[in-house]
Every structure is written in structure tokens, then in C-alpha cells.
Amino acid sequence: MGLGAAGRRLLQPLAALAALAAGCEVLVDGELDAVLCSAEGAIGPPACPEGTLCRNGVCIAMPPERALGAPCEAHDDCGALDFCLDPTTFGGEGPSVCARACCSSSDCDPVRDAVCWVPDTGGGGLCRVGRDVGRPEVGTGRTGDPCAAHRDCRSGMCSEGVCVDACCSDTSCAAAGAVCRLTKGLISSGSAWACRPPDTTGTRGYFEACDEHAECASGLCAQVDELGGRCTIPCCASDMCPASPGDVTHIVGCAEVDVGAGSTVRACARVLQAQSFSAVGVACTGDDACRGGMCVIEPGQTQGFCSDVCCREASCGDVARFGCRPAGTGSSWALRCEPK
Fold first, then answer.
1. Which listed residue, of 41, 233, 326, 329, carries a Cα 20 to 30 Å from 265's Cα?
2. Could you tell me if 22 and 75 lie in one domain?
3. What is the structure's pLDDT at 8?
4. Is 51 inside a domain boundary?
């Protein structure tokens, strides 16, 4: 027997409810409009209805002013994976705006005119609107693609006929047949990691002894604690750093490395203790307990939490609790996993 008009009207909202429940939960006994979710930070379907995002377990409206580059006063003014950046912290100019940690400009999607900007002083890549950082025209060309002008490239940077961009590891560059190497004056006035063709002059690999940057395949010779000069590689977080090779192995962590002229880059350059294995967010009383070699203890407290340097939100583990945010590190600033 076919359904009448009344029956069809009854089934329509039930079907919509079932489709919505496939990606999130509908709160029936509480507020009728509240939709619960579990994919923290997800935007739109299937986790949440269109035009909303998952924050703290509830789908909330995502107003347009939360876009990258929008003015802000606090982190909560920005998107779930973004934060409120004071550009002057990193030597920039202008009012505070919504920003995001990044490895390359594609991390700034879907805002097509946002690029991965590396401050002259280093400290990590930050998604900024191109026109605010001297890159007014942004195209679609990826790293290694041919270009005739800056406007041809997704990064807004064309050098010697090819698009160039920032990177955090060789993975970011592999599709272009390039590697992540230390550069100076290319994507930043200071030193920064960027995708470049392999350099045949530097042949020494990870943690081989070195005296000069030019000796290393990565372009970086760093002073690593008691081990002295060692060729090393870029990193987002400490779990990206392999143990040191050789007869005596060391657990290696990711750290900000001073490369001179007031500039720093992230690299595997910190020797950790055998017991340094606790992840970001785990309670700690000292640096030696943490995989990142960093226990953040607030003044007046005896216990803190393990942290690490970072280049993306995912570097910090539970994105519902921790985010990749600017933090003071001595006399400079860098991106570090901080509580939300």
C-alpha cells in the first residue's frame, strides 16, 4: 500500500535526521538545535551541518569573520584550527589577525590568497593573507612548477623560473623531485627551509660530523649538545626525528636552532634522555620526561605539561585540547604546543 501525503511528510524529516546522524549525533533530550560531534575541528558534512564546525563536541556556527586574515582580539575569534596572531611578535606589522601554523602555502587552503609566511627571524611558518606580507598576487602553481611571475605561484613566489615555497620535511617537496633544504633570502629575508633541487656539493647525511653548512645534504650543520657539529634535518615535532645512527644511539628531539643573524629554524638537534617519551599534554615535573624535551610549568606550580615545537595543529596530538601557537622561547618567539 502506498504512503499518503501525510506519510511522506513524516518520512522526509526522518530521512534528513538519519543522514545527519551518519556524521554526528543529534541531541534529542536537550536543546532541539544542538548537534553533537566527535571529529574536533571538522568543518561541515559529514561531521556537522553545512556552515558549522565541530568545537568542543558541539557543532557551532562558523561566521565569515573567522577566516584567515580577519581582525581578532582572542584565539576564539578565529577558526577551530587557527589562532589570533599579533604580527609584531614576529617582527611584522599591522593589527592582530587570524592565522594558522603551516608548512607550505597549501596548508592555508581554502583561503586562496593566504600564503605560508616565514618571518625573517624564523620561528615557523604562518598562514597570512598575501597582500599583508608583500605577496599581493597569488596563483595556483605548486613547488617546482614553471612560472614567469610571482602571481603564477600558490606561494606568491617565483624564483629563477620555478615556484618556490616553504617546507617542513622532504615529504613536502618529493612530488617536485626536490628536497627540503636550508635557504637564506629566498622565501624569507632570513634563513628558512624551502623546497630546492638536491645539492651535490653537500654529501653528509643525518648526524654525520660537520663544520660548515655546505658539507651537509640538508644545508644545515647544527651544534648538537655535547656531540658538536652534526648535519641534521628539518622537523615539525620531536617524533619526526630519527634516533642518531652509529654505535651509540641517542634519542633526538626537534628544537629551534640559531642559524645566525637573529634567525632560527626547526631541526632535529636536541639530544634527549632515555626516559624522554611522554607525549604533548602528559603531566610532568621536568624536561627529561617529555618526548619534546619541554615541560611547561607555570609560575608557582610544581607540575606542568609536556610540550614540543610544532608546525601544524596535528603536531600537538589532541587538537581539542592543544594547538600550535606562538610562545616566547627565551629572547625570541616560536610555535609551540599550547593548551587551547
1. 41
2. no
3. 46
4. yes
Task: With respect to residue 186, please indicate whether it lies within any of the assigned structural domains.
Answer: yes
Distance of alpha carbon 83 from alpha carbon 136, whole angstroms: 22
Indicate if 71 and 140 belong to the same structural domain: yes
Residues 50, 83 within the same domain: no
Q: Does residue 56 share a domain with residue 71?
A: no
The CA-based angle 260-264-270, given to 5 degrees, is 105
How many structural domains are present in the chain?
2
Average pLDDT, the chain: 85
What global pTM score does this model have? Answer: 0.78
**Cβ atoms 65, 74 nearer than 8 A:** no
Type of residue found at 195: C
User: Who wins on pLDDT, 160 or 60?
Assistant: 160
User: Residue 46, preceding bond cis, omega within 30 degrees?
Assistant: yes
Task: Compute the distance between CA of residue 316 and CA of residue 236 in angstroms, rounded to an integer.
Answer: 10
Half-sphere exposure of 114 (CA within 13 A, CB side): 23
SS (H, E, C) 27-67: CCCCCCCCEECCCCCCECCCCCCCCEEEECCEEEECCHHHC
- How far apart, in Å, are the Cα atoms of 333 and each of 132, 261, 314? 20, 15, 20
- Do both 12 and 34 map to the same domain? yes
Residue type, 277: F
Residue 209 in any domain: the answer is: no
Region 193-215: mean pLDDT is 92
Q: How much is the pLDDT for 261?
A: 80
Q: What residues make up the domain containing 12?
A: 5-61
- Looking at per-residue pLDDT, the higher value among 57 and 152 belongs to 152
Dump pLDDT digits (tens) for 224-246.
988 999 999 999 999 999 999 98
188 lies in some domain: yes
- Residue type at 226? E
Average pLDDT of span 13-38: 52
Q: Is 141 in contact with 153 (CB distance < 8 Å)?
A: yes
240: alpha, beta or left? (left if phi > 0; alpha if psi -120 to 50): alpha
